[in-house]
């Protein structure tokens, strides 16, 4: 960088310029894509560990970008957060999930809980819990069929904003899942303070099973979860050995490619029992 009369001129390597352009491109396109609703949801089933019965779904957003194809949420969620568009995208995801659930219900299915991923930044909106409950009511969905998945970064530093909203959701019987447990700081204090109903053990904890040290860590997390009366989901289960180990160590639920990939809304609907 060179100083010139009070301005800074930065010299960028070509690949940095390219990366910046790609990001700018995605950011500009995101705004239009949100307006055009180019997003849809897939639903990955969660199963009870012992019976392997379907217990619910996690909604995962997909962007079908015209002329480009499928863009991964890992690519556009950070861009949406960076550009202040995550609130609008989050509302789109919420409404789409509720619309799909209402259709399942209308067509005679017995609902099971659907979890929605909520970005930490969405909690900056003090109305978030109100919006979730209002939209659920507007779609005729009982709050107990909704779950919000939050990462601990949602809570760190913003506990005063996050706590009352999670408490409001729990009081209305919306589930609250602590997502990606075992990554980051995984503060045990947060576990105690947040009104959560489910602990989701990150794939990085499950992947090395049945390695003994990995097993010891999963066991400890399960003992902690059990003593707080939480459901414990093993995420990213890819092998039968991982499934058996996760169950043996105390996980109550399993999710992962072994049991099911994320499914289209209609394929998810087909797994639901008929309303009695
Ligand atoms: P996540 O919440 O941890 O979701 C799990 C991710 O792991 C999903 O990837 C899922 O498809 C993938 N996965 C599930 N089972 C397996 C497995 O057995 N093996 C492997 N290798 N992967 C598995 P996806 O759909 O690409 O989502 C990535 C991340 O994007 C999510 O991680 C979540 O953080 C974020 N995300 C997805 N949808 C939304 C959304 O609607 N809103 C927000 N804010 N974030 C979202
Ligand atoms: Ca999640
Ligand atoms: Ca996760
Ligand atoms: Ca994750």
Automatic annotation (TrEMBL):
EAL domain boundaries: 23-276
Superkingdom assignment: Bacteria
Coiled coil: none
Protein name: EAL domain-containing protein
Shown segment, full-protein numbering: 479 to 754 of 754
């Amino acid at each position: 960088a060179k100083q010139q009369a009070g301005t800074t001129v930065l010299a960028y390597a070509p690949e940095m310029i390219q990366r910046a352009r790609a990001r700018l491109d995605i950011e500009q396109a995101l705004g239009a894509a949100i307006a055009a609703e180019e997003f849809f949801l897939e639903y990955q089933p969660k199963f009870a560990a012992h019976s392997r019965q379907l217990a619910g779904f996690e909604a995962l957003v997909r962007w079908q970008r015209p002329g480009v194809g499928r863009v991964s949420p890992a690519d556009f969620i950070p861009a949406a957060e960076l550009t202040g568009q995550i609130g609008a995208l989050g509302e789109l995801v919420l409404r789409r999930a509720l619309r799909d659930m209402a259709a399942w219900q209308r067509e005679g299915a017995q609902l099971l809980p659907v979890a929605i991923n909520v970005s930490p930044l969405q909690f900056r909106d003090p109305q978030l819990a109100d919006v979730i409950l209002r939209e659920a009511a507007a779609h005729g969905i009982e709050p107990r069929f909704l779950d919000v998945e939050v990462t601990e970064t949602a809570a760190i530093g913003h506990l005063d904003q996050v706590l009352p909203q999670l408490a409001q959701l729990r009081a209305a019987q919306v589930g609250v899942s602590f997502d990606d447990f075992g990554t980051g700081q995984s503060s045990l204090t947060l576990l105690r303070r947040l009104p959560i109903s489910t602990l989701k053990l990150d794939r990085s904890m499950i992947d090395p099973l049945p390695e003994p040290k990995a097993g010891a860590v999963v066991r400890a997390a399960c003992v902690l979860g059990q003593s707080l009366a939480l459901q414990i989901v093993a995420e990213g289960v890819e092998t039968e050995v991982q499934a058996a180990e996760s169950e043996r160590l105390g996980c109550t639920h399993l999710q992962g490619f072994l049991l099911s990939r994320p499914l289209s809304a209609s394929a998810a609907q087909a797994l639901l029992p008929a309303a009695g």
